[in-house]
Amino acid sequence: MLTNLTSISPEEAEETIQTVTGFFSDLNLQKIITIILLFAGCMVAMKIILKVTDRAFRKLEVEKSLHTFLHAALRVILWLITVCIVLDYVGVPMTSLVAVLGVIGLAVSLAIQGTLSNLAGGIQVLVSKPFKAGDFVEAGGVSGTVKEVGLAYTKLNTIDNKVISVPNGQISSEKIINYTTAEQRRVDLKFDASYDAPAEQVLAAIKGVISAHPKALFTPKPFVRVSAYKDSSIEYSIRVWCATADYWDLYYDLLEQVKKAFDERGIEIPYNHLNVHLIPPEKQA
Known about the structure:
Elements: H1 2-6, H2 10-25, H3 29-59, H4 64-90, H5 94-111, H6 113-128, E1 136-139, E2 142-149, E3 153-157, E4 163-167, H7 168-173, E5 176-178, E6 184-193, H8 199-212, E7 223-229, E8 234-243, H9 247-265
Antiparallel strand pairs: 1-2, 1-5, 2-3, 3-4, 6-8, 7-8
């Protein structure tokens, strides 16, 4: 394909040179004025098109970064069209010009393949809007608060206050988890209690902690049930809804307060034991 694009015969090249040379040799005031008017007309049309598209982007509330990129890309395209129109009037064959531009475009795209991949990913992220600045997300294998969404990279501020720039090509090709979009989140926890503790007593202790917590929501109703019978303990699962902003406060409070409630009621949380039995020498025979 590349060979076909660059296969301009010597006859075509000579014809192009003669055409351009003949045009400039016959250059007069009328042709100069025509070129100026043609160029000015293209510039006026370019400004009108850019103004109309900018107004449309603002009405559609297009992301600022995407708006800037599309504006710049459209400007480049319009400049190329203007150059082609002027060169066509001069007499340069469009087939030769398009072939040269195609080769240049292919060479540039191969040289910046990785950047173009990130650029395409950035456009996809900005158009689909899976997250925005301020959202806490997991994207590209990194968790953090979105600081900035750019065309090539998205900056995430991690919990330990590191700023990580993740390539948009990587983000767009992997799953994205947004923890901030929904107004409510559910806290899921599991606790183990001894078989010696009656299940009713354990359930009452957990429900008492939940009902006393100011950040726990009761619509939907909290879920507290026995979920498994293990080798040395009974597992209890709880699911409590809360406002998204209160998720971590409720999460850690329940961990601490349920343990305290178990201790107050004498409910044992089993843990692995290692029993070592020493056999006296006289009994080893």
